[in-house]
Write a structure and sequence with these properties.
Elements: E1 2-5, E2 20-23, E3 26-32, H1 47-64, E4 72-79, H2 85-93, E5 103-108, E6 118-125
Parallel strand pairs: 4-5
Antiparallel strand pairs: 1-2, 2-3, 3-6, 4-6
Helix pairs in contact: 1-2
InterPro entries: RidA, RutC-like_sf, YjgF/YER057c/UK114
GO molecular function, one term: deaminase activity
Organism: Maribacter luteus
Length: 126
């Protein structure tokens, strides 16, 4: 059985998908790009601010599902320029305890939705 998770505190999907799906005790969160859910506008121009917005969106979805970043077991980060990895990593690290941080991969890609610079998805377990 799956339960659809959606919140107004994260951007509405821009395609035929949901913000997250809860299956059993596992939450699969769709990739979040730096869209401010209040304005619907992209946060642009500074990779740290863009990453921060992605993480805020992910936090809102986790909260809606009754979870926190401590429940995250796997993250996937997609970036358009690997030269921005250190700045992205600095923001990302603020949300996790280094000793219990999730597994993760970071991949440089040619393009992302709306041509953003960063997209992050997560899997969390209650």
């Amino acid at each position: 059985m799956k339960k659809i998770i959606n919140t107004e505190n994260a951007p509405a999907p821009i395609g035929p998908y949901n913000q997250a799906v809860l299956s059993g005790n596992t939450l699969y969160i769709s990739g979040q790009i730096p869209i401010d859910p209040k304005t619907g506008e992209l946060v642009e121009g500074d990779i740290a601010k863009e990453t921060e917005q992605c993480m805020k969106n992910l936090k809102a979805i986790l909260t809606e599902a009754g979870m926190t970043f401590e429940h995250v077991v796997k993250s996937s980060i997609f970036i358009s320029d690997m030269n921005q990895f250190a700045e992205i990593n600095t923001v990302y690290a603020k949300y996790f305890n280094a000793e219990t941080a999730p597994a993760r991969e970071t991949v440089e890609v040619a393009n992302l939705p709306k041509f953003v610079n960063v997209e992050i998805s997560m899997i969390a377990v209650a």
